[in-house]
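Researcher: I'd like a candidate sequence for this fold, 495 residues long. If you have to choose between options at a position, lean toward the conservative one.
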């Protein structure tokens, strides 16, 4: 009987492993897959330019809110039930997004999809680590991380091709078969596991930090459209953010127990690494959010080509992460952190040289360099963060560490959208100021037709927008420069 049961158990473990890795890919690819399809989505839903960032931030911010509850939900209802429920709701979210006919419907559907996706990533990794022996945990973490990065990196290419040849709803429908496959494997192969006693959870702490993050996110996303503090809504969101963060800090300092152990904040390496990982997220997704519109709207690249242009960055990012796993343990991880930051800064400095006369090679070269830098930085920061952290604190630390990256991405997207529109308007005024009547001497009657004026205005707007995009790459570069001195305060991690 044991001889028969062993192959079945091995086969079941293999199926669960594949499903868990596919879950990591599925959750990540749906972050970036709309990136190259933005022109089609905007045109179909009449979405304004300042609303584009919501496509990404709505999904990520919603998943960030639910993610900390995963452990409690799994202990209360069982990991298998939670896994399948999340997959079913995620599939419903995919259908709702694809069927959206207005911007509001689309954003609410992305929020719903993000809420459903929140438990998927931590559950899939926890199940992998639970099923496999500890000797394979390092490789398991690496494989899971690579699949998540592949999802983010391949999303724009897949979305660009599908939206150009089939239609933008197909970029969400394509995830349904994979979701169904994972649901089926989980139902057939994953044994149920439920805590004997329901774990306690700090709902007040989660509620206050969620209030603070949501208020800040809404204020940044809506501020430009509502003229900032001349709007009562922005005041309400600012007060909600300040109140939420204040209550959370007081709760952390005064409560005996909460979902973030105070000991986490006493580990200098972990705190500094989490801050730098926030900057990592600040650069990772906003670069995609800026590059695709620049190529499509300003440089007139086809949608599918724009998607393919993200591939070099993804290849070097994933490749660098894999190569870092073979780096000798005796090499100080702080050296890799410095090297990663230096490469990212240099890549963003290269992006400052973008111009209307450039070809695809300039974008590909900068993407290659930035991908390599981010690929070196990610595992190096993880090593410095957890190398000195108590083993008992690692589950909570891993949740906070990943939250810092995800929240960095949502804040980064909001910030670059704000500065992009402000800089576009400022540059348009500066360029238009030089178009005086004395420069019309070349026209026979000294005037321009309405068509010519419209064409001239479009040209000025395009030039202003390109300058504004380049300025946003400068902001991303400055963000990395600001956190770079923190490397000097890191302690050497044990080998």
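Model: Candidate sequence:
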């Amino acid at each position: 009987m044991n001889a028969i049961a062993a192959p079945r158990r091995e086969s079941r473990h293999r199926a669960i492993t594949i499903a868990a890795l596919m879950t990591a890919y599925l959750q990540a690819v749906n972050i970036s897959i709309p990136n190259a399809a933005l022109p089609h989505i905007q045109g179909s839903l009449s979405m304004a330019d300042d609303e584009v960032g919501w496509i990404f931030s709505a999904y990520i911010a919603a998943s960030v809110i639910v993610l900390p509850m995963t452990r409690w939900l799994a202990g209360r209802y069982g990991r298998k039930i939670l896994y399948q429920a999340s997959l079913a709701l995620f599939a419903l979210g995919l259908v709702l997004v694809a069927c959206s006919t207005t911007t509001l419907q689309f954003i609410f559907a992305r929020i719903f999809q993000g809420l459903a996706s929140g438990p998927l990533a931590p559950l899939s990794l926890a199940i992998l680590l639970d099923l496999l022996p500890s000797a394979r945990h390092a490789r398991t973490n690496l494989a899971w991380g690579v699949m998540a990065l592949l999802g983010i990196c391949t999303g724009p290419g897949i979305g660009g091709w599908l939206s150009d040849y089939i239609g933008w709803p197909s970029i969400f429908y394509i995830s349904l078969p994979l979701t169904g496959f994972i649901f089926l494997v989980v139902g057939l192969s994953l044994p149920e596991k439920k805590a004997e006693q329901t774990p306690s959870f700090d709902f007040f702490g989660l509620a206050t930090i969620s209030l603070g993050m949501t208020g800040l996110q809404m204020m940044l996303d809506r501020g430009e459209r509502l003229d900032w503090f001349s709007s009562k809504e922005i005041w309400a969101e600012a007060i909600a953010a300040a109140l939420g963060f204040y209550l959370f800090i007081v709760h952390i300092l005064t409560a005996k127990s909460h979902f973030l152990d105070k000991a986490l904040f006493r580990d200098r390496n972990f705190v500094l690494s989490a801050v730098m990982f926030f900057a990592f997220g600040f650069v990772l997704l906003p670069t995609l959010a800026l590059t695709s519109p620049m190529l499509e709207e300003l440089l007139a690249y086809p949608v599918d080509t724009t998607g393919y242009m993200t591939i070099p960055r993804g290849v070097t990012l994933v490749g660098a992460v894999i190569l870092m796993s073979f780096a000798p343990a005796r090499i100080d991880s702080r050296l890799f952190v410095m090297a990663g930051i230096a490469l990212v800064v240099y890549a963003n400095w290269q992006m400052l040289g973008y111009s209307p006369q450039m070809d695809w090679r300039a974008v590909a070269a900068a993407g290659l360099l930035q991908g390599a830098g981010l690929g070196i930085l990610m595992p190096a920061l993880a090593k410095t963060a957890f190398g000195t952290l108590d083993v008992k604190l690692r589950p909570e630390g891993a949740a906070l560490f990943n939250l810092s990256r995800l929240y960095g991405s949502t804040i980064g997207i909001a910030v670059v959208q704000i500065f992009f529109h402000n800089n576009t308007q400022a540059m348009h005024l500066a360029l238009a100021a030089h178009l005086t009547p004395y420069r019309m001497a070349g026209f026979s009657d000294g005037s321009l037709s309405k068509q010519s004026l419209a064409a001239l205005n479009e040209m000025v707007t395009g030039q202003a927008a390109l300058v504004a995009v380049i300025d946003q790459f400068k902001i991303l570069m400055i963000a990395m420069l600001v956190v770079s001195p923190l490397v000097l305060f890191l302690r050497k991690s044990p080998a």
